[in-house]
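Homework-ish question, so no full write-ups if that breaks the rules, but can someone show me the predicted structure for this set?
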Amino acid sequence: MQTLISEINTLTILTSTLLIFLFACAVVYFLFLFQKKRYRHQQEVLELREAFNQTLLQSKLEIQEQTLDHIAKELHANFSHLVSLININLAEILPQSSGETKDSIAETKSLAKQLLSELKALSASLNTDHIMHIGFVKALENELARLGKLKKCEITFTKTGQEYRLRPEHEIILFRLCQEVLNNIIKYAKAKSVTTVINYTPANFEVAIKDDGVGFDTEQADRQSAEKESTGLLNIKKRARLINAEIVIISQPDKGTEVKIIVPNKSAE
Amino acid sequence: MQKLLSVHYIYLIPLLAATLVSLRSFWHNWPRPFRQFSLFLFVTLSIECLAISWKLYLHKTAFWNFKPWNVWIYDAFVIIKLLFFMWFYYQILSSAKIKNIIRKSMIPVFLLGVLEYILINAPHDTNTYTLVGGNLIIVFLCLSFFRQLLNDVTVKTLKNNPALLISISTMIYHSATTPFFIYMNLLNNKSPQLFVDFFSINHVFNIIMYSLYLTSFLCKPSFQK
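A: Not a homework solution, just the prediction itself:
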C-alpha cells in the first residue's frame, strides 16, 4: 500500500511538473512569437510611412521643378522678348532725341540691357533642363556670380579634387538645396563674405558654404522649426535625405554659419 | 570540503556567477529595481551559504548542538523572497490596479508567512502554504509583466530587456516546482528517500533560473547610457 502511494505521488509530481513546465515554456514561446510579429508589423508600418513621405516629398519637388521650369521658360520667352522689344524701341528713339532726354533714354536702354541679362541669368538658374545640361558645378558658379552682382557680399568659390558628375536628378536636388542655403544667407545672415568650397573625393562629393554673418543657435532653430512650423531647415534636411546626403550645420550666434553637404558618390560603391 | 563537492550544490555556480555579474547594474547605473535585484541575489547566495554551512558544519559547534535541519533558514527566506518579488514587480509594473493589489497584500502576506513560520509548522517542516501560495503570487506577477509587455503601445526589443529574462526564469522555476512543493512535507515524512530524489527537480530548475538571471545581467539593456 505504501509503495502504491509513493508511486502515485511520484507519477503525480512528475506529470504535473512536466505539464506546468511545458505550459510555462509555451507561454514564453507565444510571448516571443507575438512580440516578434508586432515588431515586424511596426517595422513595416514605419517603412511604409517612410516610403510614403519620400514619395510625397519627391512629388512636391517634381511639382516645384515643373513650376520653376515654367517660370524660367516664361521669363526667357515672354519677359526677355518684351525687354528686347523695349531695347529696340529705345534704340530707335535714341537718335531722334537730344539733350537731357537723350541721356535719360541711353540710361534707360542700359538698364533694360541689364534687366535682360538678369532675366536670362534668373531663367537659367530656374530652368531644370539647363541645370542638367551644364551640370551642378557650373550652375552653382552661375548662381554665385548672380548673387555677386547684387554686391551685398564678397563671393569666393573654390574646387578641389578630380571632377566627376553626380546623377542628374541628384544634381538638381543638390542645386536647389544650395539655392535655399544661399537665399537664407542673403535674407538673414547679413554676411560680408560667402565662401563656397566643392571637394571631390572618390567616396564623397562635398559642398561647404560658409558665411561670416550673424549665425544662429542650431538647437533653438530646430525647436522653433517645430513650434512655429517653419519649414526652411526641415526642407533642407528632407531634400538632403532624398539624395542620401549628410547635412551638417555648424553655427553660433555672431560667429557665422557653415553648411556642409556630403553626398556619397554612387559610382565609387 | 568533500561534502561540498556534491552534485546537489551545482546550482551555486550559476547563482554565484549571476550575483557577480549583476554588479554591472551598479557600475552602469541601471534603474533601481535591477540594482535591488542584484542585492537580492547577494542575499540569496548568503542564505544558501548559511543554510549549507548550517547543515554541514554550523549546527554543531563548541557552543551549541542542534539538529542539522536547515529548513528553518529557507522558510524564513521564503517570506523575504516573496516580499522582495512583490516589491520588484510593484516597481516595474505600470498597471495601477495590480500595484494597488500588491500594496494592499504585502502586509497580510508577511503576517501569514510569519504566522505559519512560528505557529503552524514545526521547525523541520517546510512552510508549504507560504511556499506554494508565494509561488502562485510570483507566477501571477510574472504573467502580469508579460501582459504589460504585450499591451505596451511601443514594441520593445525583448533581447534588450533584463526584466523579461528575470520574469521568464522566475515564472518557470516557481510554476514548475509548485507540484513538488505541494507534496514536500508529505514526502519528507512518508518517504524521505523519494523526497531527496525529487529535490533534484528543484536543483535543475534552480540551475535554469540562475543561468537565466546571469544572462539577463549580461545583456546590454536599452536603458543603459
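Now go work out the reasoning yourself. Hint: Chain A has a mean pLDDT of 85.
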